Amino acid sequence: MNRLLSAGLAGAFVATLAVPAAAHTGHAGDAMFLQGLLHPLTGIDHLLTMVAVGVWASQNGGRALWLLPASFITMLCGGAALGMAGIELPAVEAGIAASVAVLGLLVLLNKRVPATAAAILVGVFAILHGHSHGTEMPQAAAPLLYSLGFILSTATLHAAGIAIGLARHIPRLLFASRAIR
């Protein structure tokens, strides 16, 4: 039941944020901060992965709650720097698709993994997502402002995922508090 509730909440959240997918079309125009902020929200692959990182962090609990999002954001920045520098990485799109599938499956199965191993897995996927953000940065954008935008958006999606993951405990807490009275 908790998995169904988590999946339903995640689906409802994603449906409220989803806009037409445009994360991999080669944006144009004067963008800066807002373009970077919107980039993770305009591609369902980025959106699902970043929310899944937060949900999975909450499922793992303990230090994974902060370590997974921190690892993702740190490695996202590294991947973005590679992309902005024009350094090619193999199979970026396939890796991004794999991140959606793998993290989605880990969340669905409520698979607990040691925090360090989970952070490494999340970090590898983050490099690919960051590379995508970096290579798709509009030429007119200021790299720092664009990067700050997608970092803020990513952190917000992680926080939303953590909230979704923690929300699965609410029914149990509500019923437990009624039993105490």
Summarize the structure.
The chain is mainly alpha-helical and 181 residues long. The chain has one domain (33-165).
Output the radius of gyration: 17 Å
Domains counted in the coordinates: how many? 1
Helical stretch tally: 8
- Characterize the overall form: globular
Largest sheet features: none
Oligomeric state of the chains in view: single chain
Beta fraction of the residues?
under 5%
Q: How many strands?
A: 0
Would you tell me the structural class of the helices and strands? mainly alpha
Helix content: over 70%
Order of helices and strands: HHHHHHHH
Uncertain runs = 12-30
Average pLDDT works out at: 84
Straight-line N-to-C gap = 25 Å
Signal peptide: 1-23
Transmembrane segments: 38-57, 64-85, 91-108, 115-132, 144-167
Protein name: Urease accessory protein
InterPro entries: HupE_UreJ
